Amino acid sequence: MPAIIVFNKSDLYKQKDLEKLEHLRSIYEKNSYTVLIMSLEDLTGVEDVRSLLKNKTTLLSGHSGVGKSTFINLVFPELSLKTQDVSGWSGKGLHTTTFAEMFDLPGGGKIIDTPGLREFALLDIEKNELSHYFPEMKALITNCRFNNCIHIDEPGCAVKKSVAEGKIAEDRYISYLNILGSIDENKWAT
Ligand SMILES: Nc1nc2c(ncn2[C@@H]2O[C@H](COP(=O)(O)OP(=O)(O)O)[C@@H](O)[C@H]2O)c(=O)[nH]1
Ligand SMILES: [Mg+2]
Ligand SMILES: [Zn+2]
Question: In sequence order, what are the beta bridge partners of 101?
Answer without folding.
Answer: 85, 113
